[in-house]
Structures are given as C-alpha cells and as structure tokens.
Amino acid sequence: MKALILVGGFGTRLRPLTLSVPKPLVDFANKPMILHQIEALKAIGVTEVVLAINYQPEVMLNFLKDFEAKLEIKITCSQETEPLGTAGPLALARDKLIDKSGEPFFVLNSDVISEYPLREMIEFHKSHGGEASIMVTKVDEPSKYGVVVTEESTGKVERFVEKPKLFVGNKINAGIYLLNPSVLDRIQLRPTSIEKEVFPEIAAEGKLYAMVLPGFWMDIGQPRDYITGLRLYLDSLRKKASPKLAAGTHIIGNVLVDETAKIGEGCLIGPDVAIGPGCVVEPGVRLSRCTVMRGVRIKKHACISSSIIGWHSTVGQWARVENMTILGEDVHVCDEIYSNGGVVLPHKEIKSSILKPEIVM
Amino acid sequence: MGGSEERVVAVIMVGGPTKGTRFRPLSLNTPKPLFPLAGQPMVNHPISACKRIPNLAQIYLIGFYEEREFALFVSSISNELRVPVRYLKEDKPHGSAGGLYNFRDQIMEESPSHIFLLNCDVCCSFPLAEMLEAHISYRGMGTILVIEVSPESANQFGELVADPVTNELLHYTEKPETFVSDRINCGVYIFTPDIFTAIQGVSSQRKDRATLRRVSSFEALQPANRSLPSDFVRLDQDILSPLAGKKQFYVYETTDYWEQIKTPGMSLKCSGLYLAQFRRTSPDLLASGDGTKNAAISGNVYIHPSAKVHPTAKIGPNASISANARIGAGVRLVHCIILDDVEIKENAVVIHAIVGWKSSIGRWSRVQASGDHNTKLGVTILGESVTVEDEVVVINSIVLPNKTMNVSVQEEIIL
C-alpha cells in the first residue's frame, strides 16, 4: 500500500525552529515530526511513502536515507517546482501512487499529530464502498476551520463550509484521507485545493464519506499548538500505559525523557515535558509544559515553563523562561535572565532580560 | 620610494555567518560582505579603493564563511577589476590581530613592504594612497585611520589621543565609559611587516604567563582571569593600547564620511553615501532621466542595466535598483534599495526600505519607514521572496523571507 504526505512549504509559522531545519524534521516528542506519520503508516503495512515537498529537498533526502534503512520502508520525494496547493501534488506524484493493485492510498498532512487509526479507516472505507474517505475531528471553535457536514448515520459527506459564521456542525477536516486511485483522474496538474475543488465534487456524487477521528488531534504548525499537542500526545501515551513515559519522585504527570539525557538531583520535571537526546538538566531545575530539544543544557536552579528550547541551546543558572518563549538553535540564555515570551533566532546570546514578548533577531 | 621592491598587500576582514547577527534578516540569505551598496557588493568598495594603492600586489579577504560562498565572487572581481583577490578561511577565531598573524605566510609571500588591514563593514572614502605616504614619512610600525566624531558618540568606538605635531599615537582605549577623545579608530590600518613580531610577542607572553602562574581557585573565578588562548590576539587591546606612546604607531586623520555598516538600516544610509561618492568620482555610473523617454530621476540613483523601469515612475533620491528588477508605471521610490528580481507593480510607493530579492510589491501598496537608521525598525526590511499584496501598507516593520503580507502592519517583526 502507498501513502503521500503533504509537506508543503517553508514552515514560517514555526520559525525560528524552521530557520534551522525544514518543518517535517522539527522534533516533536523527541522524534522528527514526519517520523510519527511514517511509523504509523509502516505499522499498517504501507510499503512506500511519497513526500510532496517544495523546499530544501537536499536536507530532506539526506535525512530520509537514514530512516529508509532503519524502518525498511521506501521513501521518495515528489518535488513541486511551483506551489500546487493541497491537491496538485497528488497529480504530480500520480505514477508513484498508482500501481496494478488498484488499492486506495493514504494522504496525510505533515502538520497533523493524532492517534492515526489507519486500520479502522481502511475498514470504514471498504464498508461504505465510496471513492474517498476523510477523517474529521470535533473541535470547540469550528468557525476557525473548514467544517464538514455529514449525514449522521452513514458518515456520507453532504457539503464543506469554509469558516462558517453560523453553526453548521463541529467536525472539521483532520487532514487524513484514504483515496481510490480514481480520485487522481479528477485532479489536474495545476494549483488545486482538495477541500474547495476536489472533495466537493466527489461529495456531490455521494461518494465521499467521513469518519470521526477517535482520540486526539492537533495541527502543530505553530508554537502554541505545538505545546498543546505535546500535552495531548503524552496523554494518549498515558492512556496506553506506555513504558516510554518517565517515572520517579522527581516526575509529575506525563514526561518523556530520552535515554541519553541526564537529569540532576533535586529537579522537578513535568507535567507535559519532552527532553531530547543528549540533554543535560542540572540539579535544582524546574521544567513544566516544555520541549527541550537535542543537546540542550539547562543549568542549575533554572525554571522553564510553556516554552520550546531549540537544539544545542543553553539556559543559564537561575534563569526563568516562560510564556511561549521559543529559542532557536544554539541560543544561550545567560545566568539569572528572565524571558517572558522571547522568540529568539538561532546563534544568539541573551544577556538581558526580555520582559514582554518580543522577537530577538 | 615607489621602487619595484615596495610591494603592498591589502587584507580585508570580512567576518562570518554566525558573527554579526545584527545584519539579519538580510544576512539570512546572503553573506553581509556581498550585500550591495550603491549597486556593488559591500566588499567591492574597499577592494576598488585598494586599486588606488601604488604597487598593490595582492588583496586577501579573510573570514569565516565557507570558501564556496566566496569562490565565484573572488574570481569575477579579480577579472572585473584586474586585481588579484584571494579568499582565506579562518578555521577558528584568532582575534583581529591573530587572524592577520595566522595567515602571515601567505601575506608575506610577495615580501611586501607594507600591509593594509581594512574591515569590510566600514563605509568611508578609503584614502589609502595618502595613508601610505603619511605612514612612510612617520616611519613607525603602523598608521591608523582616525576621524573626529561628536563627543557623545565617541564611546561606541576605540578612542585615540595623538600628538598634534608628530601624529604619534599617544593613548588608545576601546569603548571607554568616560570621555577620553573625540578621535576614533576607523578600522583601517597600514603596517610594516614587523607587526607580526609584535603579535607574536603578545602570544608568547600570554603562553609564558599561563605556564608560570599557579592561579588560586578564587582568582580563577574572576572574569578578568578567564584567560584567552595564546593565539587569540586583539589588535586594539593587545597591540595598540600597550604600544601607544612608544613611537610605534601614528594616526592619519580623514575629514570625509565614515560609518560602520552593522545593521540593514545603516546599509541603506551607506548606500546613499557611496552614491554621493559616485556623483563626485564616477557620475556616469549613476542614472539620469526626466520622465520623458526614461523615468524621472531625482538626486543620486543607481539602476542596473538589466533592470526595467517604466518611464512614468519617479526614482530617487538615494535609490539603488539591482539586476532584473521591474519597476512598474507610476511607482515612487525614495531612499531605498531594491534587490535582484524584484517586481514593483503600478503606483506602489517605497520610502526608507530595503526590498529583498525576488519580492513582489503590489499595486498601490506602500512600504515605508521613518528612516531612522539607528533604530531597529527605522528602515523597513523585506526579506527574500516577500509578497506585499495590492493596497497593503507595511510601515516600520521587518518581514522575514517567504512571507505574504495580505494585511497592513506597523511596527512589527513578521517571522
């Protein structure tokens, strides 16, 4: 079985992290974002994944060679020379997605983190016999998104409503699709929107069905949602009683600690923290609701909450870092500094406190 | 004087990518030394000035950028200006004097009698031939270019005190807290080869001190004792300061313009200074037009030959338009740098801004700023491939590459 992951563009909303690596390679819960999706696809028997990209293909391809070997799954890139929207890339990758088997293929959006109930989706798709299946998820504020209006009992999609002013439903497109190869016949090789052009056409013919996604869903394309997404992800690990979660008197709630990371005496870690490979957390440190990426050193007595600390950065002694502070790669916060929502570009030293949210270039 | 043995070598320090983050966002896409001022890469200006040095044998660019980033530039500038230019990559920081010492073998290859040292991010008239003459007459180890500045601003720089008659350097101090002098170090020097002996002296002294002393644990905590590696030698603190007043160094004063190009805002100002210089020395490089066959030009304007400017546009003063830019009908450009492949659509207005490579400025849109070169948002900077949609206003803001502005903003940094 095959799959396409829409990787798209520059990831500008996740800057400054995406100034150092392309977005799919930004780590989430100690693993490159795209690896979460590739592993979920591999688990249900997908043998080939096509990445639809238009930015920094060399960096992506290098990374992928490593994972192709480790995961024993074929990974190829389909590169857009001009932006093709959300459907165009499928037409571009046509030859890679269709084979003689006539099997449906998955399409995933690379910004999405969820439970990936892909096996259940295959069953759903077979049972309704339609041309295309999409996952939808229930949200509190549907007007921010595109709402999918479905027939309650069958899940047949009646229509799509973009950012509705009045309540029409609370299910939105979760960015996970299972499509028959015939869908590709509906897509031309030009900038095309799958939600605005392709799906409404299939829905009008009564051949599009929606399945409600069980479990959590988050679009982690921007820092605030990234931090919320980590909480939901770790929560789902807890529900599965995953052994990956850390335990100990110094751990509160759900915490992920890479086996190569070191945590000192007298620390209090959690809830909702991910500590990456090679990190050093010195004694007396308090971490909550934050991500600490590979190679970071947090010095003694520091306190970090609701923030993302980028690769190889350091946070000084007694520093306090909070309120959506995002440190890019190789950022060094000096001792005793306070950062309230500082967004710091790579290779900087922070020698004076940031009292209110600001971008440091 | 001026015999065939009197060869001169020039060294231009160009810095490196993780140094000088102050030049972001422009430095996210291009090494700062290659950023264009008045239509030419920043480093072209000191290189062209070096051509006026009699008996110039070689120019070295020393920096931390990868060789491949400078390979193309170095070969094309060598051909274009018919002067040999080489790029040397430093493997680790050696300090401003240590860097020179690190490459002494290459620098001394042609047995030069004099060595110029220039900083690439200095904007001035580079009176190098006059400096050489003065230096020869002083007979010292080195001569430093100095300029008078306002007493209030002097403490941002190295302050020098010189004898008014002999021009000997009597005292040098870097960024002092109290007022010492209103003459400051311009970052342009000329040395005789015995500068290498002086630098080596500092290295050895530091090495000896490190092995002889047993530092107590208390002393080891003091910041002043955080010892520098023996091959890290700073020109200002380690050479000029100690040797001031010992008849080794002299000063040469310039009364022309001088600025440091540390931020994108300053690069706009310095582009204007170089355009004014072209008006004096090579006016045919500048554009002209009166709105009939060509666009109306006001003040000093540079337009690359491949750029297309609609005749109903009005350009200048202080505008610089790079290769393949397309300026549409009725566009007004004032105090700006328009980089390669930019498209500016009809009736747009750009004032006090830098528009990045391949960007697109929509019809009737307005990109402007206060023009205060010293504040962070005083000049609007659009990074590479930024799109400003029709009728959108962007004021006193910085926009990082690949963004689309579809709503108006003021005083913002858009990541």
From TrEMBL, chain A:
Its EC number is 2.7.7.13. CDD domains: M1P_guanylylT_B_like_N. Keywords: GTP-binding, Nucleotide-binding, Nucleotidyltransferase, Transferase. Transmembrane segments: none annotated. SUPFAM superfamilies: Nucleotide-diphospho-sugar transferases. Residues 251-360 form the Mannose-1-phosphate guanyltransferase C-terminal domain. It comes from the Eukaryota. Signal peptide: none annotated. Coiled coil: none annotated. Residues 2-233 form the Nucleotidyl transferase domain. Pathway: Nucleotide-sugar biosynthesis; GDP-alpha-D-mannose biosynthesis; GDP-alpha-D-mannose from alpha-D-mannose 1-phosphate (GTP route): step 1/1. GO terms for molecular function: GTP binding; mannose-1-phosphate guanylyltransferase (GTP) activity. GO terms for biological process: GDP-mannose biosynthetic process. Belongs to the transferase hexapeptide repeat family. This is mannose-1-phosphate guanylyltransferase. It comes from Salvia splendens. The lineage of its organism: Eukaryota, Viridiplantae, Streptophyta, Embryophyta, Tracheophyta.
Automatic annotation (TrEMBL), chain B:
Residues 297-414 form the Mannose-1-phosphate guanyltransferase C-terminal domain. CDD domains: M1P_guanylylT_A_like_N (cd06428). Belongs to the transferase hexapeptide repeat family. PANTHER family: SUGAR-1-PHOSPHATE GUANYL TRANSFERASE. It comes from the Eukaryota. Residues 10-205 form the Nucleotidyl transferase domain. This is Mannose-1-phosphate guanylyltransferase. InterPro entries: GMPPB_C, Mannose-1P_guanyltransferase, NTP_transferase_dom, Nucleotide-diphossugar_trans. It comes from Salvia splendens (Scarlet sage). One of its GO terms (molecular function) is nucleotidyltransferase activity.
